[in-house]
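Objective 1.3, modelling of assemblies. Example input:
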Amino acid sequence: MFAMQSIHSSIAKLKQTALALSIGLGMGVTLQAESSPELIKQLQSLKSNDASNEIATNTIKQLYAAKDVTIIQSLTAMKGATPVGRNWLMGLANSLYRKSGKSQTAELNKFLSDASQDGEARYTVFKWLTDSNSELRKTLLDGMKQDPSPELRYLAISEAVQAKPDTQELLSLLDSARHAGQVVSIIGVLKEKGTVVDQVKQFGFLTEWKLIGPFDNVGTVNFDKVFPVEADWMDGKVKDEYESKLVVDGKNVNAKWINESAKSEDGTIDIAAIYSNEKGCIIYAAAEFDSEKEQDAELRLGCINGNKTWLNGKLVMSNEVYHTNMKIDQYTETVRLKAGKNQILVKISQNEQKEQWAQRFAFQLRVSDSTGKAVLAKGK
Amino acid sequence: MRFKLRNTFARSALAFGFALAVFTSSLQADWPQFRGPNAGSVSLDSKLPTKFGGESNANVAWQTKLLGRSVGGAIVIGDQVITTSSSGMDQRRLHLISVNDKDGSIRWQQEFVARGRTNCHPTSAIAAPTPVSDGKYVYAFYSSNDLACVDLDGNLIWYRSLSTDFPKAGNDVGMSSSPIVVDGVCIVQVECQGDSFAAGLSCQDGRILWRMDRPKHSNHASPVAIKLPSGEQVVVMQSSQDLLAVSPKTGKTVWTMDVKCSTIPSAMAAESRLFVPAAGLTVFDLSSVGAVPSKLWDNNKLAANACSPLVVGKRVYTVSRTVLASADLFSGELKWQARLPDAKSIWSSPVVAGNNLYIFTEDGKCFVVNLGDEKGEVVETNDLGESVLGSPAISGNALYVRGVSSLWKIAEK
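Predicted structure (tokens):
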């Protein structure tokens, strides 16, 4: 509500300014528009909606016309800006760089070396400065393997891995790497060199699960249906068995909880293999995560089927998507872990597609910090 | 839209104030969108070399390496060749690049960071849709549902993160529907299993003028603008569930049909007919004023798996896997089929210059097929040595090819 009022107020202010300008110009009077820092502030707080676009389109026009706006101003404002605002500011910075960037190398170098600045802005500056300077690129990247900017860190580690480092250096790079694909890649290189890394531990995949099902999802209509097991889970009093969709000898068969351990190095629970490639069904998977302390973390799920995930009874993600892809860290949500035992429930929904590529029924889940580094359960 | 005058007749026609319709075939338009003017994929007056690339680099005017990758096509606006690219970690960096037609040098670049999903199939890219221009601005759309509008100097006019507006919009195989611009409205088709929709955004500032729910199924086909007999322009959209036309300014449905269309190749219009990849190829009559188009014919032998159909003269052409088919425009009768020898998978929609069809394979081969009445003859097989998935552009006597990692200009030397 407050945000909306703020937007409306900004629009009103902008319209007043535009009106004043047009009146002023019409009368041959020069009026002072809003200052560049004020205009940049408007871009910084932009949301993605029609009102914001109306403001921003006019704001950026004024900034193009302003004589005092600088690249550094625009880049600095990216810190603390909304994701949408950062792209507007980056667009502005790119235009300013084309006009005068080459003459501001010293300021840009200083900006890049300030690790407290916005990571996306610093990556942009890095590329400007090193576009035609491979020596500088190498020198800078050598010192960026633990950079707070995920993009710079990723690039620095990629280049270092390509330089064929020895095992000790690779282990050090692995420790710094946060991007899932990069971690898998380094583990692969280490394996070729004869050093086996416990990938499950590296990622912090949850491997011990209790599964129950299959429950009816014929016609793929029950993604949002609250089955009794789900309702009981939320109430913290699950039973040992529930009526399932399976019929044997004309009688309904109850589903019982079964224990399953992820056997693959990517922590995947292969539901299709466990439940004989059952289609049009729903499986629930439950796990416990014993946290050392109360802390912020991320639940990172990979799943090729429809999925919902709850933490301690609270829904944290829901994705009704089937057979488009499955990869580590495919779906990521920020959560607050409590100290001690945290209960995780995942609902995995399989449809009835018949294509060969639509037969997978699987998921993987891990707990990490905001950078992607594994958060391990107590004692792991 | 900007036009270039290409020959004496055209200049004379302009001087005498002839109706536009008289000399459109003699004017060479820019190539402003996926499949060019009117999404026709054809430039009859253009004279392109049949032999190019290879070890001798024959008839390659220039090749410009670009950062990242793209599976969309390039567009040509005046003396600028404009394309998109995605680079960096998870292809999160979204680029819009203008290259000088004269020498392939980079004229300007604009850049953003993806705010939507950046998962896609390894053969695809986050830079998958072809950009579009109205001659004043360029509109770049990405698989991550980021939409940016820049002027012809690359200055950002507006930006919109449609995945921020609609967080469940996305597809981890990759989205690739190309935007179009009609009557001052930029139209996007974002069809997926999550937040599935089509929308019209103001070209002026990116406000969403209208939005309509679409079937929750993955769809990679692009919308197409067609002109009705009344003179009204409408936007035709296809999906696995329907075929409909909407008003570009309001999104109001003009007509809708229960037609199960393909979800990769896109429809096109020519000769008052709408050619839709559905049940093979299905053709509708666009000549009746105010009516839902009636079906004229369909032919399941004209199925297309990826490439959009095109019309030249009295023939319609489709590509199924590696087989090019030619059929009679009026009856749908199959006239001939030509197998493209040793062709690997094809994702790039073909284009026609003069009487030759140019079609690129995923591994960078280009078959040049002479379109005869009785047969299609492969007159040349060229190799750029680079994967090509986007449809090429034609302007004047040059072919512009967006390879996955570079941009090529092919023209007779």
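The interface with chain B takes residues 47-50, 53-54, 56-57, 60, 64, 83-84, 86-88, 90-92, 94-95, 98, 120, 123-124, 150-151, 154-155, 179, 319-322, 324-325, 327, 330 of chain A (CB under 8 Å).
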